[in-house]
Specification:
This protein is an alpha/beta fold. It has eleven helices and ten strands. It comes from Sphingosinicella xenopeptidilytica.
Length: 254
């Protein structure tokens, strides 16, 4: 009887797979490091040499702030992929904030702009060519007014176009994570782009493997139910991509 109960209680470890013939690259948080993004995209191009199947690059969000070239990063993303590649651009919390600030829509939280400046917004302002007095000053109205004038329409449209998640095979790609126990179709945007502890500390099976950024770790954070690939590119110089094909996982990094 004990052996029989043991058989019923034990479940074989699920082998996560992508659809046959697809090679997918998930890129972690770029945060204004156009130089690292270009280097990593070059590595991906080289990795795809000789590959005859389908390919996709999923960017996990947080393209702006902190690094010194946010405008240049959005320039490259707005250009789109080279012929033969497919890109999926997910929304991060930093894009959500920037999109709201440049929209001019009323906001309830008056601390949003000062908080944004503290977490890399000043570098974004400077990347658009704002004078130092505006980029590093405290005149919110003048700085945002100048930013709206200097930000290309393509950037504004891009900020409003990002997706919240991508599902492929046994994988779910999101910026920050998901609320455990909540069906995918019922997940809230705030959790998808902001969640930390409730997701990171959960050890249960989500029903798929979650690939995410948002929470910086020194190395790739590979867990049974999720993999975090935000390796702090803006500060460390290390931008990471997770490479998935069939049931295999590997990594590219600057």
């Amino acid at each position: 009887m004990g052996a029989m109960l043991s058989r019923f209680r034990s479940r074989p470890k699920r082998t996560d797979r992508l659809p046959e013939g697809l090679r997918l690259y998930a890129i972690g948080d770029i945060h204004g490091r156009r130089d690292l993004m270009d280097t990593l995209l070059g590595q991906i191009d080289a990795d795809l040499a000789g590959w005859s199947g389908d390919s996709e690059i999923v960017f996990l969000g947080d393209y702006v702030d902190r690094g010194n070239a946010s405008a240049a990063v959005l320039d490259r993303l707005a250009e789109g992929p080279p012929t033969g590649q497919r890109w999926t651009l997910l929304k991060g919390n930093h894009e959500s904030i920037l999109a709201h600030l440049v929209s001019g829509r009323p906001r309830e939280d008056e601390s949003l702009y000062p908080s944004w400046l503290k977490h890399g917004g000043r570098e974004t302002l400077a990347s658009y060519g704002l004078p130092a007095a505006l980029a590093f000053g405290d005149d919110e109205a003048a700085a945002l007014g100048a930013l709206r004038e200097m930000m290309p329409r393509t950037h504004i449209e891009l900020l409003e176009s990002f997706e919240l998640m991508r599902r492929a095979g046994d994988y779910l790609f999101v910026h920050a994570g998901i609320r455990p126990g909540v069906p995918v179709e019922e997940q809230r945007q705030r959790d998808l782009i902001w969640i930390r502890e409730a997701f990171l500390e959960h050890k249960g099976d989500h029903g798929f493997h979650v690939v995410h950024g948002h929470s910086i770790t020194r190395d790739v954070d590979a867990q049974a139910n999720r993999t975090g690939i935000d390796t702090g590119a803006y500060a460390t110089g290390r931008l990471t991509a997770m490479v998935l094909e069939g049931d295999s996982r590997r990594f590219l990094s600057t």
